[in-house]
Structure formats: C-alpha cells, structure tokens
C-alpha cells in the first residue's frame, strides 16, 4: 500500500443551518486519478474548498504527506502542492498567454520590472510540460475554452504540484478536446501527480478514473474502485433513485412539417442546411463545438439571421430577422448558456417565467394584470414541478435543473409550435436531467415540434426520433435514432 | 409552541426589513437627523414656512434624480440631465420673452404651452441619448457625458453665457404659488412625476422589462425583448424629468442660464445610489430615491441653521453620508450570517 497523499478524516461542515458535509472521509494516493461525483448540492464543492483551504471544516482533520492539520489556509494548500482548476479557469482574458503563465511566478518572486525574455522562457517551459502548442502572444480571451483550460493546467504545473483538482473540467469541451484532456491527465499520472476529477458525467467517470467517491446530501454514499461500478449503480448512488431509460417514440406526427429549413447558410458558419421538423417530433442536431450547430440554432431564433436559403413556418416562408419575429412565429429558444443568456439570475422566478409572454398579461395599454400574472406563474411552477417555496425568490437560489425548468416554462408559457433547445441539460444533475427529458418527450406528444442541439450523444439517442450530424457547417448524416448508435454518430462527427 | 409564536412576528419583521433595507436605513437616518435638529435648533427648523421652502427647492434636482434612477435601473446612467434642464429652460425663457407684452403680462395659455413644449424638448433630447446608447452602443456614461456637454455648449452659444431673464414675472409667480396657501406647486409637479414613474415601474409591463433589461441585456435579447426601444424610452423619460426640473429652476431663479445647477449632476447620482438603486442595474425602488432626496434636502437646510457651519462644509458632509451608507450596505448585504445571528 502506497502512502496516501491526502487524507481527509471525518469532515463536518455546515452553513447557516444547512449541513453541507457529514462525517466525510476521503483519501487519494500519489499518481491516482480519483473521481468525485455527486449531484448539485451534494457537497462536492464544499469538500474541494476544504481540501484547498478556502473553507475550514467544523470538525475533522486532514493529513497531507503524513502531517496532520485541523485546517489549512489556501497558501498552505498551494505550498503542499494542491492546485485547483476551477470551471472558469481564473485566467486573465485581456492578457497574452505568456503573461498569464508568467504572472504568478513573477509575483511570487516579487519582481517589479518586466523582463519579456524571462517571461517568455517561463511560459515556454510551462507549455512544454504538457506539449501544448499555442501562440504565446495570443490574447487569452480569444482562445477556445479548451485552450484556456490547457493554460490553467500549465500554470498549475509550474509549482511543485502533487495534486490537481479539476472542477467539472469537461463541461464546455467537445469530444475531441475531452480526449485530449484525458491524455494529458494520463501523462500527469505517469509523473506521479494525483488528479481529483469532479464530474457527474457517467461515461467520463468510467473512462478516466481508477477510484471514485460519490457524495449525496453531504454524506459519503460510496467509494471504491471504478471497475466495480456500473451505470445503474452510479445513478443510484448519485440520486438514491432507480431510473428506466425511456427511448422516445414519436406519436401523432403531423403530416406537414411545422418548421422547415431549405438550403440555409450564414457567412461560412454553415452552408446549405436543409431539414424539416413535424409536430410531435424531436429532431436532434449534433456535431462538434465548431460544426456550426450553435450558429444554426441562433439563426432559427433570429439572433444571427441567415444570409442564404429560406425558413418555412407551417409551410409559409418567413424571414426570421430578430428574436421578436421568431417568437411571433411561435418559435422559442432555450440557449446554451443558461446563466447569461437564459435567465435573469437576480430577478424573481416569477418574472423570469412571464417575461417573454408579459405583453399578453395586461388589462389594457401595458398595465399589468396581476391576477393573470400570478395564475400563469402558479400554473408553470406546478406543471414543471419547480422546487421553490416562493416564486418571488431570486432565480439564483435554485439548482441548475430547476433553473432550466424556468427557461422551459418561459417558452411554454408563450404557446409555441417549435422549441429549439441548445444543450438542454448542460450542468443539470442526473435526476433533473431525467425529469427534463420526460418533459420534452411529453411536449412532443402534445404536438410541439422540438429541435435538440446537443453533443451529449446518449441524450440525443434517448430523446430524438431523428438525428442530424453537422460537420464543418454542413449536414453530413441524417439518421433514425433507433437505427444508429454513438459510434456511428461519432464517426460522422470527427 | 411558545417559541414558534414568538419567532413568527420576528421572522416577518426580519423579512420586511431585509426586503427594503435601504428604505429602513434612510428612514432611520431621517428620524435621527430630525431628532437632532429638534434638540438643537427646534424653532428655526420646525416651521411651516421652512418645510414649504424645502418642498419648493428639492423638486428641481429631485425630478432630475428620478430620471437618473430610471437609467440606472437599466444599468446605465444619465449625466446630461443638467444640460437638458438648462437647454429646455433657456429655450422656454426665450419663448416667454417673445410672449411677454409691453405691460409685462403673458397670455393665459403661455404657461401650459411652455410646459408642453418643455416636455417635448426633454423627450427629444432624451431620445437622442437613447439612440446613442442603444443603436450606437456607446457606454451610457460616455454618451450622456458627451451629450450633456453638447447641450450645455448649445446653451452657452445661445446666451453667450448670460442669464436669460426679462420675461414676465407671472411665470415665476405662478410656479411659486402655493395651492390652498399650503402646498408649493413645485412639489405638486414632483409628486405627479414620482407617482407616474412609480406606476410605470411597479404596475406596467414596461417596468418589469426595465428591471429585467437592467439585470441582463443578453438574457433580455434572448427572451425577445426589444431592448433598443426600451432603452430609448427610458432615456426619453429621463429627458422629460430633467426638462421639468429645468422649468422649476426657471421659476425658482426667475431666469435661465447655461451654468445653473451644475452641482446637480453629481448630486443626482449620489441621491440615486443613496436611495438603493444598484449602479449595475436591475434593482432599485422609487421610494428609496424619494427618501434620499428628502434626507439630503433636510440635511442641507438643517446645516444652514448652524451659522458656525459654513456652507463650504456641505460637500464634505454629503460625501461623508454617502460613504457611510455604502459601508453600511457592505456590512448588511455581505454578511447575512451576522444578521441572522442577531435576529436569533
């Protein structure tokens, strides 16, 4: 048995009356890839923050390299070789790659004058450690998410690092980029660096980690070797519920398509895209991050109007030049980035639900009808089972899954014909994801035409009746979901 | 059971307090100040005349503050309010001079006419700001600073820096009237505007959209709001408020000049922030702003009752009050745990 690198023993932590962690034990050995999984609110983040010294535990202690601490400060954590890569990577978008990389060590050395040559050397050395090829003079703000992540990893490795904690590192990455990240993680492992990988994506947990720890409601529910884990057990540990997979089978397809694209294109982002969606159908569009799938979604909703080709709504050609036109044609859009595009976080759940239909909730000339408004709110809070004690609470008080229900409610309240969903369950926990899929399938049965844009292939296969694959701005495959599998789709995507 | 009964009203009070922390704090400060004045300078402050004077003075910057508040709720700001006020009052002063006859009288329709025109001018100047902010995507602080300079520049070019007076005294006398010998007309104009804006913000679709837009312009776009049009309407309203403020200045000074009220720009921003409007946008109530206006007026008037305190100290005191409020905000907004402990 190798000595453990880090041991957290009987950790307790509570916040204003909420027990975030209850007697949690955790152990990681040098060079181990360990996955920490759990739903939102299960205490994953709290545990990470205790390990990295951001929070101090109420009770329990940590052992690092054999030394025992009742609590540590962030500085001590870094000195002990713990580096955390948060979801936003904490990079400076307005500085160059080189500056971002050299910044910390320049500060640590208390240098006051800039020596560009030395900075370049530091930066070159840092990226070389993970064979990361990048233009050192590029602005970090212009890089892709994956590249920013590589910079954060390079930066983390500049210190005498023994443990890297990655908080949901794959959330915004494409399949290819995830591959690449995993290769780097394996390389780090060879060098004896332990990786704590926070994720709630099942396939990643299986693929990369040797050991796992699953938390639920602040308690340790399972820990052990990943080889003993399977999909069913994983979902059960995460949620405490058993799930049945429900493949979507369309019923009541309309004869004519409710929405159709004929040879649409936009400035090199996508060209000659044609497809049709019927009422009762869920169409899946998948592809890599740069395949043009998001731009296509934005153009359907009028944020970035198409330049060539034609959209038809219920058989009639429509020029969708703005979101108002889209909404006027009963098209809604659940955006990719829920937090910045989908929701007004600090505003109430109630206002977030009614904002798009608010012009209809009036007595006369723009004066709000409070009765109609609260009836609508009650209706949608119940219908979509949004878990809140009071719809006047701010949206940001809710979990990702409940927030996504609010975005859905906002559009359903508009009596749509077509709903476009870009990454409908990104950042949503397993239980809510399952529920949201149920809602979408129900909506299709009730006669809505849905378009799901997602690179979560199990999601696409489970929920869509037809799958289109986009690559470099073109549709390269059009398949029945029942007659294909992940492997086939991937082969078209790459 | 006992404990539950005692907790509930406490919790309710806690909720009432935490929903409108700014309001309670301002009310508290006003009361403290009133008590202090009552102890030290009772007879020189607590007179009907003094309150009437205050009520006639504050509407000029009070109206401008209402406009700045609307812009700040959308996450913007309007620094051109004083420019709009002066340009409007100068143009109307010229019009009144034209209408004044040899015996120093103006026709009966003159006053309603200048008010209608003032509202129109304010709206037009505000729309100009709104277009700069929405269509050309100029940051509001720069757009309105620039347009404010432009408006003041037009004023200077028109007047060569001189005061425009020599119009019928009837105008000033009418606006300085007291309804039922009690309520100053200026106050009535302010109250009408304040109620109108309160209604817009809390009872109309426009108000909800304004708060939503201020919270996130991106989410507003993705929710199908016509963000450009909303912004233009907002700056238009601000222009109307400022123009009315200018009309009151015209009456209070019985003249118009390009550099009247230059301190009001910053003062309006102070009032709005003091009143609990979030400078980032999305949050703020008119009640807070009105209380902040009253507090500042009472502070200034009260201080004037102390002959030993020179009026040169007033900026110092306002700055102090503003910073104190900000620091208090920091503690109450950022340490809910601290508050909860006290409540228990």
Overall description:
- The complex is a heterodimer of chains A (494) and B (344).
- The two termini of chain A are 42 Å apart.
- A six-stranded mixed beta sheet of chain A has the order 6-7-8-3-9-10, with helices on both faces. Chain A has a six-stranded mixed beta sheet with strand order 16-17-18-13-19-20, with helices on both faces.
- Chain A has two domains: 234 residues, P-loop containing nucleotide triphosphate hydrolases (Rossmann fold), CATH 3.40.50.300; 237 residues, Rossmann fold (3-Layer(aba) Sandwich).
- The mean pLDDT of chain A is 86.
- Chain A contains 17 helices and 20 strands.
- The longest helix of chain A is centred in the middle third of the chain and has 16 residues.
- Helices cover 34% and strands 25% of the residues of chain A.
- With 494 residues, chain A is α/β, with parallel strands linked by helices.
- In chain A, helix 3 packs across helix 4.
- Chain B is mostly helical and 344 residues long.
- Chain B has a single domain, classed as ABC transporter involved in vitamin B12 uptake, BtuC (Orthogonal Bundle), CATH 1.10.3470.
- The radius of gyration of chain B is 22 Å and the shape is globular.
- The N terminus and C terminus of chain B are likely disordered.
- Chain B is 76% helix and 1% strand.
- Chain B has a two-stranded antiparallel ribbon.
- Chains A and B meet through helix 10 and helix 11 of A and helix 9, helix 10 and helix 15 of B.
């Amino acid at each position: 048995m190798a000595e453990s690198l880090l041991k957290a023993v009987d950790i307790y932590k509570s916040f204003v009356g909420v027990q975030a962690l209850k007697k949690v034990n955790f152990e990681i050995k040098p060079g181990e890839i360990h996955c920490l999984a759990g739903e939102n609110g299960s205490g994953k983040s709290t545990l990470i923050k205790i390990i990295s010294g951001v929070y101090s535990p109420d009770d329990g202690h940590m052992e690092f390299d054999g030394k025992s601490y009742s609590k540590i400060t962030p500085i001590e954590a870094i000195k002990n070789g713990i580096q955390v890569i948060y979801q936003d990577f904490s990079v400076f978008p307005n500085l160059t790659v080189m500056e971002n990389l050299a910044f910390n060590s320049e500060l640590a050395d208390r240098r006051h004058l800039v020596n560009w040559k030395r900075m370049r050397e530091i930066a070159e050395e840092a990226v070389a450690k993970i064979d990361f090829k990048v233009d050192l003079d590029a602005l970090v703000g212009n890089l892709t998410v994956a590249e920013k992540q590589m910079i954060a990893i390079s930066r983390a490795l500049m210190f005498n690092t023994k443990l890297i904690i990655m908080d949901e590192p794959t959330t915004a990455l494409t399949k290819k980029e995830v591959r690449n990240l995993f290769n780097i993680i394996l390389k780090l492992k060879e060098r004896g660096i332990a990786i704590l990988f926070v994720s709630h994506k099942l396939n990643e947990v299986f693929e990369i980690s040797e050991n796992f720890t699953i938390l639920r409601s602040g308690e340790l529910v399972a820990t052990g070797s990943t080889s003993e884990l399977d999909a069913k057990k994983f979902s059960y540990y995460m949620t405490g519920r058993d799930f049945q997979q429900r493949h979507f089978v369309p019923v009541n397809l309309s004869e004519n398509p409710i929405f159709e694209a004929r040879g649409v294109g936009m400035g090199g982002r996508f060209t000659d895209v044609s497809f049709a969606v019927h009422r009762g159908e869920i169409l899946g569009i998948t592809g890599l991050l740069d395949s043009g799938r998001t731009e296509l979604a934005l153009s359907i909703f009028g944020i970035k109007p198409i330049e060539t080709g034609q959209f038809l709504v219920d058989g009639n050609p429509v020029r969708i030049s703005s979101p108002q036109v889209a909404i006027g044609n009963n098209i809604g859009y659940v955006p990719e980035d829920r937090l910045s595009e989908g929701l007004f976080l600090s505003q109430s759940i109630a206002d977030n639900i009614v904002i798009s239909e608010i012009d209809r909730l009036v007595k006369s000339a723009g004066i709000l009808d409070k009765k109609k408004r609260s009836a609508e709110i009650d209706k949608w809070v119940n219908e979509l089972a949004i878990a809140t004690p009071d719809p006047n609470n701010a949206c940001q008080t809710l979990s990702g899954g409940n927030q996504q229900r609010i975005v859905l409610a906002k559009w359903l309240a508009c009596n749509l014909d077509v709903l476009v969903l870009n990454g409908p369950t990104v950042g949503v926990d397993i239980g809510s994801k399952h529920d949201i899929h149920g809602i979408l399938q129900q909506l299709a049965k009730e006669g809505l035409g849905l378009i799901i844009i997602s690179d979560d292939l199990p999601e696409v296969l489970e929920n869509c009746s037809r799958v289109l694959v986009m690559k470099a701005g073109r549709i390269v495959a059009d398949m029945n979901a029942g007659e294909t599998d992940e492997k086939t789709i991937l082969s078209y995507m790459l | 059971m006992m404990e539950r009964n005692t907790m509930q009203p406490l919790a309710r009070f806690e909720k009432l307090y935490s929903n409108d922390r700014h309001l309670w704090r301002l009310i508290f400060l006003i009361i403290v100040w009133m008590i202090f004045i009552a102890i030290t300078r009772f007879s020189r402050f607590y007179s009907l005349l003094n309150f009437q004077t205050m009520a006639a003075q504050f509407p000029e910057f009070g109206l401008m503050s209402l406009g700045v508040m609307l812009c700040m709720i959308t996450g913007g700001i309007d620094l051109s309010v004083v420019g709009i006020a002066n340009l409007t009052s100068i143009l109307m002063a010229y019009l009144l001079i034209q209408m004044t006859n040899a015996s120093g009288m103006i026709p009966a329709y003159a006053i309603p006419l200048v008010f209608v025109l003032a509202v129109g001018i304010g709206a037009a100047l505000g729309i100009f700001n709104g277009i700069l902010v929405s269509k050309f995507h100029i940051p509001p602080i720069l757009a309105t600073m620039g347009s404010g300079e432009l408006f003041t520049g037009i004023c200077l070019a028109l007047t060569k820096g001189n005061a425009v007076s020599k119009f019928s005294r009837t105008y000033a006398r009418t606006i300085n009237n007291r309804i039922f010998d009690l309520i100053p007309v200026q106050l009535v104009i302010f109250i009408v505007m304040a109620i109108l804006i309160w209604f817009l913000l809390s009872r109309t679709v426009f108000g909800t959209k304004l708060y939503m837009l201020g919270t996130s312009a991106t989410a507003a776009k993705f929710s199908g709001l016509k963000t450009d049009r909303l912004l233009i309407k907002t700056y238009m309203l601000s222009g109307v408020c400022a123009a009315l403020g200018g009309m009151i200045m015209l009456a209070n000074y019985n003249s118009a000049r390009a550099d009247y009220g230059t301190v009001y720009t910053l003062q309006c921003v102070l009032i709005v922030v003091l009143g609990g409007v979030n400078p980032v946008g999305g949050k703020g109530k008119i009640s807070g702003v009105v209380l902040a206006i009253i507090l500042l007026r009472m502070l200034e008037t009260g201080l004037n009752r102390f002959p030993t305190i020179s009026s040169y100290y007033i900026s110092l005191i306002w700055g102090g009050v503003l910073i104190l409020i900000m620091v208090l905000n920091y503690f109450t907004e950022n340490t809910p745990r601290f508050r909860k402990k006290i409540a228990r």
